[in-house]
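Model it.
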Amino acid sequence: MNEISLKYGCNPNQKPSRIFMEDGSELPVTVLSGNPGYINFLDAFNGWQLVSELKKATGLPAATSFKHVSPAGAAVGLPLDETLAKIYWVDDLGELSALACAYARARGADRMSSFGDFIALSDVCDVDTAKLIKREVSDGVIAPGYTEEALAILRAKKNGKYNVIQIDPSYVPAQLERKQVYGITFEQGRNELNIDAELLSNFVTENKEVPEAAVIDMKIALITLKYTQSNSVCYVKDGQAIGIGAGQQSRIHCTRLAGQKADNWWLRQSPQVLGLQFVDGLGRADRDNAIDVYMGDEYEDVLAEGVWQTRFKVKPEVFTREEKRAWLDKLENVTLGSDAFFPFSDNIERAKKSGVKYIAQPGGSVRDDVVIDCCNKYNMAMVFTGIRLFHH
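Modeled.
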């Protein structure tokens, strides 16, 4: 098959719609279940590239949770501790496979953004991962294969309408890529840049000591940024993205957005949030929404009389700004990646508030010296890659 007809394009009025191989060759994908749409395939193909590169760079199974052509989360398959298993709502599933851990991390970092995601997996989907996917609100999944039992589980999701795509892992795309905008064809060479140790060798700060775990986190940050709509900034800790800011016109706004997501990830691990007692039967999405509001400035929306009773067994105490700041001050050794240079030191000041210790960015700003001085002030280690990673 060299063509798949789609229901419609980005919007229902954009018809006809299809994906096809312009040279007449076979498509490298097979739809095993469902009827994927235009945006589904955009998420699937970008997500597949991301997890394939993560697996190649780290040697670990990888997963990503995509929404609107940018990752909401990305991670490699490191084990989950008790706290992470709880905040990702997987503590009832027992010990998970490495691939399932990768998806739990990718989905769990920003569960609000991951709601209704498209999943990409670097490895053959196993039963543990399929069971985890089955219970989440998701549009579909792409992987190089599926075990028989995993495929049966996924095919039963959404009464058989869940999108399951298998991709040929040996497929190599053409070196030139094209797309049309306003009837005009754009052409460019594919971004085949390898994110490796050589790219992460030019440390420009006084502190040049970076543990191997942080080097892996740098690779995760930069590979994630490679497939995130620009401007983009990514915070990473312990093998997973914990805050991704995408598509912002201002880099400081991007840094703030991603930093707030990283802060929320850490706040979910605080005693105040872990101690919330939800009413029986409240779904995961409703719990996520309640937590998100509770941690924010509009907490009264879930603590008001007559409202809190619908979510909590016991009315929670207000999570004060001072208490949140005290907990956030415990977040440390976070890695930050940026797809282009930081033009001002305000990005570093904001990053410091979210525990950033290690930074990877292209460099090349006329104010590089100011940015480096700010990093030195906080004893951060920063590497200049010399490579921009814009993605549109």
